[in-house]
Amino acid sequence: MTSLTTTTPHQGLDALAPLYKACGDPLRLEILRVLRRDTFGVLELSQLFDMRQSGMSHHLKVLHKAGLLEPQREGNAIFYRRPLHLESEAAGLPDAAVRQIFQTIDRVPVTGQLQERIEAIRQQRADQSQVFFARHAEQFREQQELIAAFDLYAQPTAELIQARAARNHWRTALEIGPGEGAFLPVLADICERVVAVDNSADMLRKARQTCEELRLDSVELIEGTTAALKGRPERFDLVVANMVLHHLPSPADVFLEGSELLRPGGYLVISDLRSHDQDWARENCGDLWLGFEPEELNAWAADAGLETGESLFIGLRNGFQVQVREFRKPENTAREKNPGKNIKSF
């Protein structure tokens, strides 16, 4: 008779042990739950769960070691998010288990009290951004061009949109965060009606001046966020966000709300920075985030029910890289598996 004590665990099962052990604490599951599409720092997570920083750091260390989350450096600060590589074709048994864990805990709604604390942190971030733009509205173009001149990303974005528009009869477009309104003429030339929404009254005033000077009568300017549009019946053929995500308290919401505001078959087009380590952009340009990995945008889009389309990556001489990304809302609920393609890389 073979003794059970001589049996050794299968290598795959052995790798699962620390994973499920890390999930054995309800608080850690709550942490993973709030990180579904948000990224939080240690202090923010301590605020959310009303606990000491040392205790939170311990839980994050356990979750990180088990492969359930990963650190994201934003200058001198460390934030935490869910792993980005889980959808890789090379993912093994532990990654499949992590996906299943996330799918299960995501079915549990966030409590009202916890959601209120999340909203409070988002509001703190939004206030920080608004204060910057209120102080620097008159120097917005100069500040932005410290990173990327407008034409360097606006022209490729316009060309991508115009190519799509030539094959689609688009009538309505929405721009999120139009800034001074420099991109509005492109949208007004393509669509019969354009809506632009911005939460900065100072930037919206400059956009209004642009519309008046160029006689863009088809453009409606709205002060607020995309949440203000969700109660309206109008749906758009195209939603655009140029260099906006890195200023937003919760960038993933653009994908969720953009998807809701798109008609079936409509397109969300994003231009923004890839991840970088130039921390001076926070103070000089009002950036909340130091860019994003393409996989991060893909994950947010998939979570919002959008298909990934074409991509364009533009390298700049100052070390920054801009990504122009296209996402499509399916015509029906049966999504096609399309990983997208890169059309060019400069």
TrEMBL record:
Pfam families: HTH_20 (PF12840), Methyltransf_11 (PF08241)
PROSITE patterns the UniProt entry points to: HTH_ARSR_2 (PS50987)
GO molecular function list: DNA-binding transcription factor activity; S-adenosylmethionine-dependent methyltransferase activity
Domain HTH arsR-type: 8-105
InterPro entries given in the database record: ArsR-like_HTH, HTH_ArsR_DNA-bd_dom, Methyltransf_11, SAM-dependent_MTases_sf, WH-like_DNA-bd_sf, WH_DNA-bd_sf
PANTHER family documented for this protein: TRANS-ACONITATE 2-METHYLTRANSFERASE-RELATED
Protein name according to UniProt: Transcriptional regulator, ArsR family
